[in-house]
Write a structure and sequence with these properties.
about 80 residues; alpha/beta; four-stranded parallel β-sheet; 3 helices
Length: about 80
C-alpha cells in the first residue's frame, strides 16, 4: 500500500475531503498537524477516520515509521 504524508498547519475542511479521497483511492494516510492549536482539533480528529493523524512532535517518528514500513510514498504539501 502506498502512503501519503501530509503536513498540515491550520487545516480547513479541504483536508477532510482530501483525506477521504486518498483513503478511498487505497492510500495509507498520515497527517501531521504542525502545531495548529486547539481551534483545529475538530478537523484533525475528523481526518483520523481516514488514516493516522498526529501532532508535529511525532513527525520524526512518523517519517521513520513510513520509511521503514513502506516502499513507496508521496509527500503532499497542504496549504
Amino acid at each position: 500500500m502506498d502512503t501519503v504524508l501530509i503536513p498540515a498547519y491550520e487545516p480547513d475542511e479541504e483536508l477532510i475531503r482530501l483525506a477521504k479521497e486518498l483513503h478511498e483511492a487505497g492510500f495509507a494516510l498520515v497527517v501531521v498537524d504542525d502545531g495548529s492549536g486547539p481551534a483545529y482539533e475538530k478537523i484533525v480528529d475528523q481526518v483520523k477516520a481516514y488514516g493516522h493523524a498526529s501532532t508535529a512532535h511525532w513527525l520524526r517518528k512518523l517519517v521513520n515509521y513510513i520509511l521503514t514500513n513502506y516502499t513507496t510514498w508521496l509527500l503532499v504539501k497542504s496549504r
